[in-house]
Write a structure and sequence with these properties.
Structural class: mainly alpha
Number of strands: 0
Order of helices and strands: HHHHHHHH
Helix content: 55-70%
Length: about 200
């Protein structure tokens, strides 16, 4: 007979609980160590209970990657909205939000990008495209309105921005850049990107 906790999870909470525990496990131990049986034990449910939501470990990892991209897209959208109409402010918001999201959860980010290249039947690739589309729309608009130099297309500009921002995130996560210098380093990098993209950063005192 199912435990009271298991019956409670069965009616709507188990999927969320599994994803939350899976994220914690991946961040702490890496995706390779993730075990459905261990997750079940930690949540106090039978080892077969997760299969109601995830038929196997791969399905759970794909859902976890999708959840990561969905969360990133939401945070980027909120940050861009709060930044106002200025392209520079929006670009800085994108960079700071991305770097902030990745810090402390780089194993999850690595899973997200590994899952991005999965089969089209999986959810993560579509979620990845949707997340990427959020900052891309900002850059495309700036290109269309002439805020970016004509010599660089929107796609090329977006790739340049992503390479710089993701690179910073990796350097911060590995300690190559001290965490105390994160905000200053992001702003300095955006200054350089704005110049290279044909825009002009505001000088700060």
């Amino acid at each position: 007979m199912a435990s009271m906790q298991e019956r409670g999870y069965h009616h709507g909470n188990l999927r969320t609980a599994l994803l939350e525990e899976a994220e914690r496990s991946v961040v702490e131990n890496g995706a390779a160590a993730l075990s459905l049986r261990e997750l079940s034990r930690g949540l106090g449910v039978s080892h077969t209970a997760p299969r109601r939501h995830f038929p196997d470990r791969a399905a759970l990892l794909d859902a976890l990657a999708q959840r990561g991209f969905d969360t990133l897209a939401l945070r980027l959208t909120e940050a861009i909205s709060a930044a106002g109409p200025s392209f520079e402010n929006r670009l800085r918001a994108i960079a700071h939000t991305y770097v902030s999201y990745t810090q402390g959860r780089m194993p999850l980010v690595e899973l997200m990008y590994a899952s991005k290249h999965g089969a089209e039947t999986l959810a993560a690739p579509g979620a990845a495209r949707a997340a990427y589309a959020v900052p891309y729309a900002v850059i495309e608009e700036a290109h269309r309105t002439g805020e970016l130099a004509d010599g660089l297309g929107a796609q090329e500009a977006a790739r340049l921005v992503f390479a710089a921002v993701h690179g910073l995130a990796v350097l911060l996560s590995t300690g190559m850049i001290p965490s105390a210098e994160a905000s200053k380093t992001v702003d300095t990098s955006i200054d350089g990107l704005l110049g290279g993209l044909g825009s002009h950063p505001v000088r700060r005192g």
